[in-house]
Design brief:
binds adenosine-5'-diphosphate, about 30% strand, binds magnesium ion, six-stranded mixed β-sheet, about 220 residues, globular, alpha/beta
Length: about 220
């Protein structure tokens, strides 16, 4: 088991209102497993993913990563865990604008103190078809190319778990399909676990299992 979450709760305050986004969401993921989390817009998919990668805190519930209870990890501990074991791909790429493709890809390796960061990042860029673009900055890359860099960066520390939040969501259909093919190929080749968040059932079907996020809980079934 890579990941096991039980009864996660999360609320936000918006002005005078409190909105209860997650009301006891549970999921588990074995290594090499691929899980799609589908749900309507606003159902809390991104919130769930942000919690799993430690960008957001939880209000209640437990999260175990492998055999570690990471529920109460500090920001610093989560950053270290992310750098060593979790890769994240976002809809909006989230590349660092003043770093070129190579430097973006190297980041997790550098945080982890890898002495071969540069070589490894170059070979990753090659595997996503961007060797010739290594020295280009994000504003010199197309949307699809940016997402390829983001995928290379997410894979760079050979994480056990990839979290992807609508990775093809801001790309045209053809580019989106090629990005999803790349992601699924790499995840399979590298024996990684994947949690794919999407509102598209078609995409979800490419994962071994699907859970629907609705009314703050995760259930098996259809959207
Ligand atoms: P999804 O990704 O499924 O579209 P989100 O997780 O982005 O949904 O959002 C779920 C709900 O939580 C929405 O109502 C959104 O407005 C709210 N929300 C998300 N993040 C915050 C935040 N940082 N502060 C306040 N409300 C938030
Ligand atoms: Mg979202």
């Amino acid at each position: 088991m890579i990941l096991n979450c039980q009864n996660i709760t999360k609320s936000f305050t918006q002005g005078p209102n409190q909105i209860d986004v997650l009301k006891g969401a549970s999921l588990s993921l074995d290594s090499k497993d691929t899980l799609a989390v589908v749900g309507k817009s606003g159902s809390g998919k991104s919130t769930l993913l942000s919690i799993l990668c430690g960008i957001e805190s939880v209000d209640g519930g437990q999260i175990h990563f492998e055999d570690r209870d990471i529920t109460k990890y500090s920001q610093q501990e989560m950053t270290a865990l992310r750098a060593s074991s979790i890769g994240v791909v976002f809809q909006q790429f989230h590349l660092i604008e003043h770093l070129n493709a190579l430097e973006n890809t190297m980041l997790p390796l550098e945080i982890a103190g890898d002495e071969n960061a540069r070589e490894k990042a170059l070979s990753l860029l090659e595997s996503v078809g961007l060797k010739e673009r290594a020295l280009h900055f994000p504003n010199q890359l197309s949307g699809g190319e940016k997402q390829r860099v983001a995928i290379a960066r997410a894979m760079s520390n050979r994480p056990k778990l990839i979290l992807a939040d609508e990775p093809s969501g801001s790309l045209d259909e053809e580019t989106g399909v090629s990005i999803m093919n790349l992601l699924f190929d790499l995840v399979e080749k590298e024996d990684m676990g994947l949690i794919l968040v999407t509102h598209e059932m078609q995409l979800a079907k490419r994962c071994k299992r699907t859970l629907v996020l609705s009314q703050g809980v995760l259930k098996e079934g259809n959207l």
